[in-house]
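Checklist before submission:
- one chain only
- standard amino acids only
- sequence pasted in full

Submission:
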Amino acid sequence: MNPRLSLASRLALLFAACTAVVSLFAGVLFNRASEAHFIELDQQQLDSKLVALRSTLQGVESLDSFAQREAQLRAELNRQPDLTLRITAAGQRWLDDAPSVSLPEAPGLHTLQNAGTDYRVYNAPLRPGQHASPQLTLMLDITHHQHFLQRMQHLIWLTVGLSALATALLGAWAARSGLRPLRRMGEVAASVSAHSLTQRLPQQQMPAELAELAQAFNAMLGRLDDAFQRLSAFSADIAHELRTPLSNLLTQTQVILTQPRPLEDYREALHSNLEELQWMAQLVNDMLYLAKADHGLLVPKREPLVLADEVETLLEFFALLAEDAQVSLVREGGAQTAGDCGMLRRALSNLLDNALRFTPAGGQVRVRMVEGARGVTLTVENSGEGIPAHVLPRLFDRFYRADPARHEGSSEHAGLGLAITQSIVRAHGGRIFCESAAGWTRFVIELPRGN
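Returned file contents:
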């Protein structure tokens, strides 16, 4: 398996590649500009020499007249040793100091290489505008120019290599320094365990690009810490809830077995044990129900429901309990949705039972239904003492009771009703929350519009 490059190494190589490309591009441009500049200089030099040669050969019409000016012409050529001349007229060569090489015949400036020597060849007529004018071919040795350009090319390649190497080293150092916060995040993540979920990244010391990531990482640690604390409390709550009925079963059984007793005593003991076992079975069933909800196994049926009818049925069921508690039950509004009748009845039953238990005598429990454009809102509210604000977020936790007095072994209220209600609402694609103010406590269920 090939080892993967680190992020710092990738950034360093990227910096080096970018620097090499930029340096190479700049070097090529500079080399082309230098070459164009030398061509321009050679053109100017050959133009000035052409003017001098035309002045020297002014009035020359034939080979004989050229012979009279040849000495003066050579004196002019000797002033620039790197310049040679060839003069041709009517197929004859009046002068030929150029190397034995095939020269371009087209007028203008040309570049030629012969035997390792570079030349700039310039063809021009002796007398411009005359068709039969002798032709002048000037050859300028530009080998020193080419050597300069070659040295420049070598320097460019050397600069590209050194700059790429230097940038790679500096880039690696800069990337390593810049990625130090990421390494810190890795160290914190590696140190996270069930016993060290309180560590947090210092967001103020993070770069702007990583501050948001650090905030999300800290939020994740906070959620993990909260979930772990709740899981630990949940395990303790399970043991707490099962301890009392198991202790009762053991105690009663041991007492009954200490000595022979009448048949009626055994019958009474078995009935008492049956109640405890039924309570434990209900607790286990509720836990299994919540476990199915946690794994997305609660799949409600989607059938049309008239919520007003369902609520009315439940209110009739709780009517006797409300009458005994001197609490009035009120239904307001109506709505329709699509859902599982049994599951929604269970959720509403938990809310109504909870509301009746905490409504004082002479109070009222209201069930309101409103059907809007985005869905159905169902509210179960009761008058009475409100719930503190710090308790509201935990109402739907399993085994949580707002009343600090725990009713151990209670076969009616184990603190799972609201958790089950929340699971049912979520399985229907809705949400539930609680509000408590001005002497009223409201549990609000929002369900999507039924099809």
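Reviewer check: Residues 404-411 have pLDDT under 50 and may be disordered.
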